[in-house]
Amino acid sequence: MSLRRLALCGRGWSNRSAIRLPAPSNWHPYSLMTARDQREYSQSCWKCDHRLRCPVAFCPDCETIQPPKQLGSAFQLLGLPESYELSPELISCRFKAVAKRIHPDQYENKSEEERSISVQYSSELNNAYKTLKDPILRAKALLAIRGVTIEDSEQVKDLEFLEEIIDLREKIQTKDDAIVAKVRAVIVNELLENQKEFLSAMSVNDLEEAKQAVIKLIYRGRILNAICEQEPVR
């Protein structure tokens, strides 16, 4: 299921909680790091050996592209703050700006090492973009940064919620247009509520509660996917 199809079918549920942040003026995550992180960061440019003060895509001294492994998270790869409330427009803007600068075509006349790094970067950047554009994957990425992973087999602990999911699945299997439309409306509203629950839990660092909110997003997202599979995108 493509993100475009999901967004159209879900009437843009993934966009409603996003804060429209101004795009950063340059691709440099230094300002996003704490003073302690800046002091403890000890990487150097592979080409000129200039000490880097933070994970960067390009050396500030010789402007040589740096290995993507220095930028550990999807957020760092796009030079964005580790926040759930990133607008789709901002994510797309950052992706296009970064992709243009590190595209392999820009390195045809560079060294073999730089060409290799550019290819690696393009692959990592595409994966990061897919992660941040998807509201569920973005939430999982934020939890992963904090050491919390969600396996495909994870189950929600709320038995009442599981009964609700079973009931909704049975309703969409009827393929009755009126019933399916009602289920879709319910799911979209509940997805928005789950997003709020996730943000609330993250704001107080309640990682277990945040994890449960994401699992609910996953379950409800699957139902929305199933509905979208039944309906042509107009």
Structural description of this entry:
It is built from nine helices and no strands. It starts with a helix and ends with a helix. The protein folds into two domains: 26-133, DnaJ domain (Helix Hairpins, Orthogonal Bundle); 159-230, Up-down Bundle (Monooxygenase), CATH 1.20.1280. Helices cover 56% and strands 0% of the residues. Helix 6 (135-145) runs antiparallel to helix 9. The model is unreliable at 1-12 and 15-32 (pLDDT under 50). With 234 residues, it is mainly α.
Please give the number of β-strands. Answer: 0
Q: What's the domain count?
A: 2
Full CATH superfamily name of the largest domain: DnaJ domain
- As for the CATH topology of the largest domain, it is Helix Hairpins
Poorly predicted parts: 1-12, 15-32
Strand content: under 5%
What is the CA-CA span between the terminal residues?
A: 15 Å
Overall pLDDT metric? 83
- Major sheet description: none
H/E series: HHHHHHHHH
Large-scale geometry:
elongated
Helical run tally: 9
- Structural category: mainly alpha
- CATH class value of the largest domain: Mainly Alpha
Q: Tell me which oligomeric state these chains represent.
A: single chain
Radius of gyration, in Å, reads 21 Å
Name the CATH architecture of the largest domain: Orthogonal Bundle
Family: Belongs to the HscB family.
Domain J: 73-147
Pfam families: HSCB_C (PF07743)
GO cellular component, one term: mitochondrion
